[in-house]
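Lab notebook, design round three. We kept the backbone fixed and only want residue identities now. Task for the bench partner: fill in a sequence for the structure below.
Input structure tokens:
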């Protein structure tokens, strides 16, 4: 899926557990796990707003767009979601 979810990154930065976040946001830990693991098909704006409020962050800190072939750690050093140059694109 081209939308990556970085809730786990913010949880680590805030030193907060999934259970604590779920309780403070008002959703079940199971539903938070579905969202956190990228298996959700949608997220309500009210849930996203509550996550941002509790984690003191912006929506872009939790969600990011990736190209279809990209996975965590496999961006070949690309910055800000820009695709890494291919050999064909760098040839004269």
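Proposed sequence:
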């Amino acid at each position: 899926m081209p939308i990556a979810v970085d809730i786990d990154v913010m949880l680590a930065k805030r030193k907060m557990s999934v259970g604590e976040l779920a309780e403070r946001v008002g959703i079940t830990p199971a539903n938070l796990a579905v969202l956190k693991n990228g298996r959700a098909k949608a997220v309500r704006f009210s849930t996203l707003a509550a996550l941002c409020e509790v984690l003191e962050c912006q929506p872009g800190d939790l969600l990011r767009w990736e190209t279809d072939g990209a996975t965590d750690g496999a961006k070949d050093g690309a910055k800000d979601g820009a695709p890494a140059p291919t050999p064909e694109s760098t040839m004269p």
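Keep this in mind before ordering anything: The mean pLDDT is 83.
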